[in-house]
Each structure stands twice: as C-alpha cells, then as structure tokens.
Amino acid sequence: xxxxxxxxxxxxxxxxxxxxxxxxxxxxxxxxxxxxxxxxxxxxxxxxxxxxxxxxxxxxxxxxxxxxxxxxxxxxxxxxxxxxxxxxxxxxxxxxxxxxxxxxxxxxxxxxxxxxxxxxxxxxxxxxxx
Length: 130
Fold this sequence. Notes:
Rossmann fold; alpha/beta
C-alpha cells in the first residue's frame, strides 16, 4: 500500500461527502471528493472509490465506468440505502475488490473497509493471476 492511498468520494449529498472526507483524511488517507460530476476532479491513480449507488440519472454507472477506465486497479466501496436494488443498476462488479455498506452508517465504519481494499492485491480488477 502507498503511504497515503488516494480515495475518491462521490456522493451527491454535500454533508455526507464532507463527513466521509474528514473521517478518511483523519485516518491518514489522501481524499478527493466530488458530487455527481467527476469530470471536475483528477481521477488518475485512484486506489479506492467510495461511491453512492443512488446518484441521480444513472450517475453511479457513469462514475464507475469512468474511474475503472482511468484507474483499473481501483477498488470500490458502494454506499447504498436500498441494498441489492441499487446494485442492480450498476455494471457487474467483480467477485473481489469491492465492498458494500448500507446507509445510514457511522462514518468511522468506512475507514477499515477503505484500508482493507487499499491494501488488497493491486492487480487490475479482472486481471488473471500472475
């Protein structure tokens, strides 16, 4: 794991983004946050994407595809208030390299999930074993 893994938080709710940003930064992670528009932020070399599955108008799908294309080793934490219902709207997730957390949650619960994923095997998601 890098000394300071890069975490991208994407959530349409400003208060949620702020709480996640502060909590993850306090844990020593390098955090960038964005609302629904990830075009305005640097998504190169993202280690972990923290993504709200309920972004309006299919936004979560677009964000996930864009980040995967630019950072293929990126791992994902999907935040959802509706569980599997929202996950069905996303492209198929790999069998490894992602976690789901049910909203609402204590933001401190996300730190170990992000660190676990940041420390995981760094092969590109879907790449065959070496």
